[in-house]
Design a protein that fits this description.
The chain is mainly alpha-helical. The protein contains 6 helices and no strands.
C-alpha cells in the first residue's frame, strides 16, 4: 500500500517533550515567583543578544545618523538586558506590567471584533475572550506590583501545561488509530 507511513512521525520525542512541558508547567504553577524570575532572565538574555546585534549592525549602516541611531538602540537594549539580568525581580515586575497592558489591549480588540461581527455564528466566543482578558488584565493591573509574584509564572505555567497536553495527545491519538486500525 502506498499510503502515508505513520512510522515517520517522531512520536517518542513528542511524548517526551509533552511530559517535560507538563512537568515544567505544573512546577511553574506551583512556584510562580521562580518561574517569573526564570522568564525574566530568559528575556534578559534575548534582549542582550538583540542589543549586541544592533551594535554589530550599526557598522553596516550608511550615514552617520543611521549608525548613531543603531548604536543608541543597541545601548538601550543593553541597559534593559543588564537591568533584567542583574535585577530579575524588577524585571518580573516590568514584564508583568507590560503583560497586563498587552492582555488589556487584546481584550479591547476582541470586544471590538465581537461588536463588528456579532451577527455571525460563533462570535460570542470573542465576547467571552474579551471579557476574560479585561478581567485578567484588571486583576494584574490593580494588584501590581504584588501581582508580579504570580502573574508571569502562572501564565507561563498554564502555557507550558497546555502545550505539553497538546504534544502528548497527538501521538497518543496516532497510536490509538494504529491499534484500532483506522
Amino acid at each position: 500500500m502506498a499510503g502515508v507511513s505513520t512510522q515517520n512521525h517522531p512520536t517518542g520525542w513528542s511524548i517526551a517533550l509533552g511530559i517535560l512541558l507538563i512537568l515544567a508547567g505544573c512546577l511553574a504553577i506551583v512556584v510562580p515567583p521562580l518561574a517569573g524570575i526564570a522568564a525574566s532572565l530568559f528575556f534578559g538574555w534575548l534582549i542582550l543578544v538583540g542589543g549586541v546585534a544592533h551594535l554589530v549592525y550599526a557598522w553596516s549602516e550608511r550615514g552617520v545618523g543611521a549608525v548613531i541611531w543603531q548604536i543608541l538602540i543597541g545601548l538601550v537594549y543593553l541597559v534593559a538586558a543588564f537591568s533584567m539580568l542583574l535585577l530579575p525581580v524588577s524585571g518580573v515586575a516590568t514584564l508583568t506590567l507590560v503583560l497586563a497592558f498587552y492582555i488589556a489591549f487584546e481584550g479591547v480588540f476582541e470586544l471590538l471584533l465581537f461588536s463588528r461581527r456579532r451577527h455571525l455564528p460563533g462570535t460570542s466566543w470573542f465576547l467571552v475572550d474579551g471579557l476574560i482578558s479585561l478581567l485578567l488584565a484588571g486583576l494584574i493591573l490593580f494588584r501590581w506590583p504584588s501581582s508580579s509574584a504570580w502573574a508571569i509564572g502562572t501564565l507561563v505555567g498554564v502555557s507550558f501545561l497546555f502545550s505539553g497536553i497538546a504534544r502528548l495527545t497527538m501521538p497518543m491519538n496516532r497510536r490509538r488509530r494504529l491499534v484500532v486500525g483506522i
